[in-house]
Specification:
By secondary structure, the chain is of the alpha+beta class. It has 2 domains: 36 residues, no CATH class; 155 residues, Glutaredoxin (3-Layer(aba) Sandwich), CATH 3.40.30.10. It is 32% helix and 12% strand. The protein is built from 7 helices and 4 strands, in the order H-H-H-E-H-E-H-H-E-E-H. It has a 4-stranded mixed sheet, with helices on one face. The radius of gyration is 17 Å and the shape is globular. The two termini are 29 Å apart.
Length: 194
């Protein structure tokens, strides 16, 4: 059984080490929770966990097949191919909350992504990213600000969150930010170099 944030904080306190010093005040919760949240794959055993893995840089993106931003799948796949061997992965999270733009079944979504964009990165089960049914992974992500300071609900399909190998959410990018935007590439490279 994995230790909880409270267990780790208590051990650190007894050792005289402030948890914020070890993890960083802003990221302490992210270190302990983002990598421990369970999210099932789009296809395959539900017991498989696709949550951002400790030790890997992960770009979490809520995706949809019938959106004006759907061509971003091509750029996401190029990122996957470019950085995968360095400990990076894209994690696509299908969501149907924005104008019903991801209505398909798991099989239809997988076939669309494979046939149209050659997607090799993992896709999760279809989830809600906003509202009372928000998946726990997104409950941990939405408080992270983007470069303009925006926090809160996911604005549209293809909003992006970069998580470093320690499990810290280090950046948030708007849906309109292209996967190969120099700012996003720089952020990925800086997490891989750390």
């Amino acid at each position: 059984m994995l230790p909880t944030l409270l267990d780790v904080s208590n051990v650190l306190q007894l050792a005289g080490i402030p948890a914020a010093r070890l993890f960083g005040a802003r990221s302490m919760l992210a270190v302990m929770s983002v990598t421990n949240v369970s999210i099932a794959p789009l296809q395959g055993p539900e017991s498989d966990n696709l949550a951002p893995a400790a030790g890997r840089t992960t770009l979490v993106v809520n995706v949809a097949s019938r959106c004006g931003l759907t061509p971003q799948y091509a750029g996401l796949e190029r990122l996957q191919q470019r950085f995968a061997e360095q400990g990076f992965t894209v994690l696509g999270v299908p969501c149907n909350q924005f104008a019903g733009q991801e209505p398909g079944s798991a099989g239809q979504i997988a076939e669309f992504c494979s046939t149209n964009y050659g997607v090799s990165f993992p896709l999760t089960e279809k989830v809600e990213v906003n509202g009372p049914g928000r998946h726990p992974l997104y409950a941990e992500l939405v408080d992270v600000p983007d470069a303009s300071g925006y926090t809160g609900d996911i604005r549209w399909n293809f909003e992006k969150f970069l998580i470093d190998p320690a499990g810290t959410v280090v950046a948030r990018f708007s849906p309109q930010t292209e996967p190969e935007d120099p700012r996003l590439i720089q952020a990925i490279e800086s997490t891989l170099a750390a």
